[in-house]
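FORM 7B - TANDEM STRUCTURE REPORT

SECTION 1: FIRST PROTEIN
SEQUENCE AND TOKENS:
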Amino acid sequence: MTFLGGVALIIAIAVLAWYMLAGCGRAPKPPKPPEPPTSQPAWCPDVQMISVPGTWESSSGDDPYNPTANPASLMLNVSNPIRQQFPSERVDVYTVPYVAQFSNPVAIPPDGQQSYNNSRAEGAQRMVDFMAERTEQCPLTTYVLAGFSQGAVIAGDVANLIGAGKGPVSADLVLGVTLIADGRRTGDTGSGEATQIGTPPPGVGAEIALTGVRVPGITMTGPREGGFGKVADRTYTICAPTDLICDSPRQALNPINFVSSVLTLVRAAGNPVHALYKGFVVDEKGTTATEWTTVWAADLIEKAPHPAHS
């Protein structure tokens, strides 16, 4: 090796050593994820309860903290006792305001109501928007979700999104979900399915029995893909036998003869069984559907975390 070659080799080794010692030869480390919050604003509730009323039991302009659109709304039998039992700093009770209508698409003259599709979509969007805003402001607040009839479909659809990791809050923030007279009730058990409270009736939700019906304003969406996913183990469903909204005979509502099927569905929303969950007994102690839901929600709130506030 010549003198100049040796000098060049020494220089090359020195440059390589500097390069390695300076860290230039290392792959960049990924940035650390942000630290989870350890407290939240003082005004944030520990628990957020969200109640979704059924068809004809709400309105788009109703006050979510003092709903008066329908004083006989079934969900008031749950939300009012919870509001009375706990201070506002422990639980905030929000009733989703939405049009809550179900227009009969074959009525002559038209009945002037919003379509089921529009009503359901408005309710779901308002619920998602509220939860997204609340969790951004109050990242440690946990959630209790409950709904009846069309409201059960809405709450169940949002729970489905959350369980799939696509919802407005993470699944670990949801303490529980109860759906009374869910129109997308599968009647099944197993992975991803809700737990039935009371004796399970043999039928399915009308949206499943009518899968395939697509008429102006009404789309029957069938079962929820993936069920309730990560929140299935804390999701409950209540259905009274012969309530066609949640206990329709499988395939008995003929999607081909859509006129009679839709009329059956419209009538089902106002049938006596569907309107009597306040008195529908779900256990041997004589507990009614609304009483069970109230006790269930209160127990979750009692046991919920007490996040730090600042």
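SECTION 2: SECOND PROTEIN
SEQUENCE AND TOKENS:
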Amino acid sequence: MNHRPYRHIERRKSRQVYVGKVPVGGDAPITVQSMTNTLTADAGATIAQIRALEVAGADIVRVSCPDEASTKALRSIVGEVTVPIVADIHFHYKRAIEAAEAGAACLRINPGNIGSAARVREVVRAAKDHGCSIRIGVNAGSLERELLERFGEPCPEAMVESALNHIRILEDNDFQEIKISCKASDVFLAVAAYQQLADACDYPLHIGITEAGGLRSGTVKSSIGLGNLLWAGIGDTIRVSLSADPVEEVKVGFDILKALGLRHRGVNVISCPSCARQQFDVIKTVEVLEKRLAHITTPMTLSVIGCVVNGPGEATMTDIGFTGGGRGTHQVYVAGLPDHRLKDGDIVDHLVKMVEQKAAEIEAQGASKEAEGSAGDAPRVAAS
């Protein structure tokens, strides 16, 4: 019996497409994306940044291809990384064809912006021939002039009409491997546009608040906008757009999904803001712990609370709990139960070791269950 129905999010039903080997939409996990900010023509720098994003957990990475030098470099880039690459194309249809031939898993292109019907057919043929999906990317800042003149300003209705127009062009060319974004820097505008788009089609949606700002302000805006959409079940793949290191976009993206219980990666640290009751330096301890535990990808929870007011209660709901106690001696909990006590000096080292051991146990249990399942599926040999 589910005693926590308030935690349930019913995701919007959408068709599923693939970006390389990564499924998007349907019942697939919500994927986290980012985008490189290196010159794509500098293959070495771009590969290094993509690899850093892979380590952070990115499922899909987008690179801009504004010129022929970029699409030439794309072939070597794709061959050196493991995540599928989305080639960001805006107006030049030849760049899209070159990117498909170079191994891009997806083309980010609005078919209505690349010219004649013949050019659209060429791009669609290249996408089909090379197994590329296409992301239609509508942005409030670059809506078609006709829509702006008719609606007077960027609005949800204009953005959705733009998206549906681009979809229609691809469908008329017998192409349905489509995902769509409908972004704005204004949270209200973006959320309203996505809500209307979610009702208007069943294609998977790539959601984001575009040009959200710097690390702190952009994280806040993105959390509000994406949180509202995800809570309503809208969104199949996300990007947090920050004027910061792209790795931070991936970290924030996973934190948003983790907070909503939609996807778990790494250690979820529950910690108090600290006050005069704290029995150790909570803020510094958590800061160091988060850095030291960044390599853990196994989903698990760790509570770090400064005193006994909320500490024991939080510990009952986490895999490992740590609560500050008097005279420099603190309580450690395992699976919600008091396990042992700990002195001030080695708090971080001790908790890091415990988390690493717990992660290893969880991984071993998962591998064991997988092996048992495989053995159970194997054909049985009858005794002679």
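SECTION 3: OBSERVATIONS ON SECOND PROTEIN
Residues 329 and 343 are 5 Å apart (CA to CA).
The chain has twelve helices and 15 strands.

SECTION 4: SIGNATURE
Preparer initials: ____
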